[in-house]
Amino acid sequence: MNQKKRLAIFDRLAVAIPEPSTELNYSNPFELLIAVVLSAQATDKGVNKATARLFAAANTPQAILALGLEGLKEHIKTIGLFNAKGENIIKLCRQLLDKHTGLVPKTREELEALPGVGRKTANVILNTAFGQHTIAVDTHIFRVSNRTGIAPGKNVLEVERKLDKWVPRHHKKDAHHLLILHGRYTCIARKPRCQSCVIEDLCEYKEKTG
Question: N or C: the chain end with fewer CB closer than 10 Å?
Answer without folding.
Answer: C
